[in-house]
Design goal:
6 helices, eight-stranded mixed sheet, mainly beta, 3 domains
């Protein structure tokens, strides 16, 4: 749950490593206003849960940051590259979003989203160079029931490593996202040291205060914009690698006292809340307004911002880089739910503190099972934990334990169950856990959105959503990709052909080698040379080459076909690339 009280915000304003200026009374009023219409019980719960964290954080200030000051020998110094704006990856970054998906889970009546992949090859966004920042801005959320939301969503976090809260627990089909790249075109450089301790800049002042060992401390007028880069230098002018930093509006020797004062205040607030001294939230807000304004932290108006930096070496000076001119480029892409709701009556599991609640696509609770946790959805009504597989029995509103070896869900809605051991045949069942189809399969393979069943006598069948099986004669192997409505297959003689999504052999078995299609073209080996063909098998280009070295990609992730040890290359259109 997002914290509704300003207690952590105030704490982090002192100890964090961000670049915001200290809070003034206007902002304090905004913090207090954020409590509007919040129940007192909810506020009390937040204070009680966070006060221990506040106490732990306060201990970090015992003895101040001076404990981190070290003398580092010359041979142990670590260096980094000097600051230089690097825009080489911008074009590639703007074109990287080809197949972005997200997983959606639910907890405490909120949606949790984690984003997966920028295209088929990369799981994470491209890292950009110095002087370049990237921002993801959600623009539209398309819910499964047809609702399109645009308001109050731009602050939702888009993360490719961790889950982030995305509002109400309601099934999302897709999200429109703007990706912005800002890069610096021009900047100023200001250097300070003991020999040049004070510099006037942009109507304000930068002051060198102290340098000792790996530590340097300086101040800026809070009218000066935050620098885009602070670079520490040793005596020879080498750029030192940074080990830590602290930016805040309170002088280092005052931080512990102010934090202690704030902690004492919040303990008093905790006691008053637990003693039910406030009749409603409005009365609490008035109390906060009257009392917080007297705390020194919220009356810090000296106009000074304090910066402390630590390096892997003896620091003698710092250079501050301030942006003068920037350029912005952006693109828009759509991210899709990789496991979208398919049936209108589908239920999904949501973890709460004491139960699993099964909600519909609108977030409405339908079934609650107490004392259950840690379930992971396999697909539809099937779940698993560390011990067993389960089926959600909607009729009886319970979880049925499945004592089986494996359960697999497929995109057409079928479920494959392997009964007891890996060597058994799969049984296909419906979402109601009822057997369907007349065949048993030793292997089930999904390619794109197509499902194939393979029997022990090595016969291949195409399976529809009702497990109706269409025999695919002559096929001995099915490859792993569906592209341009074509799947590579081979026969018992290892000759390659292509089928379409109906299982029809549209290009016969005749190639010794082949690649999947891309943009309607691929390369195949036939009669001892490689040829470019279209999706109907028509030869477009005969390369006259007898050996395909490898497939590479151009800057737009399109194929490059390389022959004769890289001496002859073709682009994805089958055109010769002139070196």
């Amino acid at each position: 749950m997002k914290k509704i009280l300003y207690i952590i915000t105030a704490l982090l304003a002192i100890v964090s490593c961000n670049k915001t200026q200290p809070k003034n009374n206007t902002e304090l009023n905004e913090f207090i206003s954020a409590l509007d219409n919040k129940p007192l019980d909810e506020i009390k719960e937040e204070v009680n849960s966070n006060i221990k964290q506040f106490e732990s954080m306060a201990k970090l200030f015992s003895g101040s940051f001076s404990n981190d000051i070290k003398t580092i020998d010359k041979e142990d110094e670590k260096y980094e590259e000097p600051f230089k704006v690097d825009t080489t990856g911008v074009h590639k970054a703007l074109n990287q979003f080809k197949n972005v998906t997200f997983s959606q889970t639910y907890s405490d009546y909120k949606s949790d989203l984690q984003f997966v992949g920028t295209n088929n090859d990369n799981k994470n966004p491209i890292k950009l160079g110095q002087g370049v920042t990237q921002t993801f801005i959600p623009k539209k959320i398309y819910y499964h029931d047809g609702e399109v939301r645009t308001d109050s969503i731009e602050d939702y976090g888009l993360d490719f490593h961790f889950t982030e809260k995305w509002g109400k627990a309601k099934a999302i089909d897709s999200i429109d996202i703007t990706f912005k790249v800002d890069y610096i075109k021009d900047y100023d450089v200001v250097e300070i040291s003991s020999d040049n301790p004070t510099v006037q800049y942009k109507g304000g002042e930068i002051n060198f205060v102290k340098a000792e060992g790996n530590y340097i401390y300086f101040t800026l007028s809070d009218t000066i914009a935050s620098p885009i880069k602070v670079q520490g230098h040793n005596e020879e002018g080498k750029v030192l690698d940074r080990s830590g930093y602290s930016n805040n509006g309170v002088a280092p020797d005052e931080q512990e006292d102010i934090l202690t004062e704030m902690l004492g205040y919040f303990k008093k607030l905790q006691k008053k809340l637990n003693d039910d001294d406030f009749k409603d939230t409005a009365e609490l807000q008035e109390y906060l307004k009257d009392n917080l304004s007297s705390i020194d932290f919220f009356n810090d108006n000296d106009g000074i911002f304090h910066k402390q930096y630590y390096y892997y070496g003896t620091v003698k000076s710092v250079k501050l880089f301030f942006k003068k001119d920037t350029k912005t480029e952006e693109t828009t892409f759509t991210a899709y739910n990789y496991q979208p709701i398919k049936e209108n009556d589908a239920l999904v599991a949501m973890q709460t503190e004491n139960a699993i609640v099964f909600i519909d696509s609108n977030g409405e609770p339908k079934i609650t099972i107490q004392g259950v946790g840690g379930l992971e959805n396999i697909g539809g009504n099937f779940y698993e934990d560390y011990n067993h597989f389960y089926h959600l029995n909607k009729a009886e509103e319970k979880l049925d334990t499945l004592l089986v070896y494996s359960v697999e869900a497929f995109s057409n809605g079928l479920i494959g169950i392997l009964p007891e051991q890996e060597s058994d045949n799969y049984t296909l069942v419906t979402q109601n856990n009822k057997p369907i189809g007349s065949n048993l399969y030793w292997q089930i393979k999904e390619v794109g959105n197509l499902l194939f069943g393979i029997t022990y006598d090595n016969k291949y069948y195409l399976l529809d959503e009702n497990a109706n099986a269409t025999l695919l004669p002559g096929i001995h192997k099915i490859y792993n990709n569906l592209a341009d409505d074509r799947i590579m297959v081979s026969n018992t003689n290892s000759k390659i052909g292509f089928i379409n999504n109906k299982g029809k052999l549209v290009i016969p078995f005749k190639y010794a080698d082949a690649k999947d299609f891309e943009d309607g073209i691929t390369v195949v080996e036939f009669n001892n040379t490689y040829k470019f063909i279209d999706t109907n098998g028509k030869v477009l280009v005969d390369t006259k080459e007898d050996d395909l070295d490898f497939l590479k990609e151009d800057e737009n992730k399109k194929r490059i076909y390389s022959f004769n040890y890289g001496k002859v290359k073709y682009n994805y259109k089958g055109e010769v690339i002139e070196e």
